[in-house]
């Protein structure tokens, strides 16, 4: 089976680190429910999302902090190295997150000017970063995530798109 199922909004650095270790990453919709479903459907060993929900196949169908802690402690014992040393293997990428209040999040899907702007900004980030924009499933907000290697660029892209969303949908 596959090794890992993870929410689409994962950190780019994690994706690159997994790729370097030849661990396949499966992207899911937002929500630990979808991560758990994908783990079972594909036979993944574990999955997780940025909020910290880590799900271990065969242990639990929901994120459990105690199980995650025990698993990390087991790895540390087996590796015989401190956590800071293992974590240092992950590249660092700055990330900008915004929750932008809007009148009607569903208008986002039908807004041509926003689609064009997002496409243009994604092209600017091509190869050095990524952009994820979506309506929240639980609040009247648009979620915006920009990450990449160049902090100035991701802040600029985040600020530009946030301003446009506020102007068009706020």
Question: How would you explain this protein's 3D organization?
Answer:
A hairpin with a 5-residue loop joins β6 (129-135) and β7 (141-148). This protein folds into 2 domains: 4-87, Alpha-D-Glucose-1,6-Bisphosphate, Chain A, domain 3; 95-169, 2-Layer Sandwich (TATA-Binding Protein), CATH 3.30.310.50. The strands form 2 sheets. A 4-stranded mixed sheet has the order 2-1-3-4. A 3-stranded antiparallel sheet has the order 5-7-6, with helices on one face. By secondary structure, it is α/β, with parallel strands linked by helices. It contains 6 helices and 7 strands; from the N terminus they run βαβαββααβαββα.
Question: What is the number of helices?
Answer: 6
* Helix and strand pattern: EHEHEEHHEHEEH
Strand order of the largest sheet: 2-1-3-4
| Mean pLDDT across residues | 85
**Mind telling me the C-alpha Rg?**
18 Å
Q: Give helix % range.
A: 40-55%
What is the compact description of this entry?
Helices cover 43% and strands 21% of the residues. The protein is an alpha/beta fold and 170 residues long.
Properties at a glance:
170 residues; alpha/beta; Alpha-D-Glucose-1,6-Bisphosphate, Chain A, domain 3; TATA-Binding Protein; 4-stranded mixed sheet; 3-stranded antiparallel sheet; 6 helices; 43% helix
